[in-house]
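Title: Prediction job returns without error message
Component: structure pipeline
Severity: low
Priority: P3
Assignee: unassigned

Description:
Job completed but the reporter wants confirmation the result is attached to the right record. Sequence as submitted:
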Amino acid sequence: MVAGGFTLWQDVDMIARRRVLAGGLALAAGPALAQAGTRIFAAASLQTALTKIAAGYRGPGAPLRVSFGASSAMARQIAQGAPADLFVSADSEWMDWLAQRRLIAAGTRRNLLSNRLVLIAPRASTVRLKIAPGMSLTTALGGGRLAIADPVSVPAGKYGKAALMKLGVWDSIAARLAPAENVRAALAYVARGEAPLGIVYATDAHAEPRVKVVGLFPSATHPRILYPAALTKATPAGRAVLDYLSGPKAMAVFAAEGFLRP
């Protein structure tokens, strides 16, 4: 990982070269593959669904090369000049941040998806906890820590913090966190048994068989989870890709992975 959560170019570029030679998808390709296709920077929680969608895309702007990471890291990389054609964030704030810097194309922004926030545990865990005001989260953790994406800047972590504050348990848990650079890293902590509990999106839990959902956070406990998408340059090929992501074929894949329409 490069600082800020960006994809490690060297290893993925090698994989991408093999796939291009085979006529397949180039994922998170590095500078050597920057001459063609559409470059998408996307929130880490989209990895499973968007990788499937990109692999099957054959329209204008193909192949789709996707880099995944925290929305905060992806937005900062774009602001620093990283070669992205399309950005999909896991919250509105980081899209607003780019818009304020005039780094997204006018008239291309749209809310693509929504999601739910869940508390997870390793599959073999016997922890039971009802998500409610004043819940005994510290007791449920035992001697462990709560895996959560960085609550300062990463959308999943910010949603998680908001929910815990609304439920009145944030102060009791703030010193017991295992902060991660993105939501998939938080998911991995729990999947590997390194943390007894974690907060991720419902779609992340769906994608990882080594974890189970302990409880669903009520939508009223946190801001609405939205995934805005926008082009950084208003090109015909980019618009075709964005339209495809909003269309029925892509939406069927997103729905199968547990995403909701906004």
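Comment from assignee: result matches the submitted record. The longest strand covers residues 38-43.
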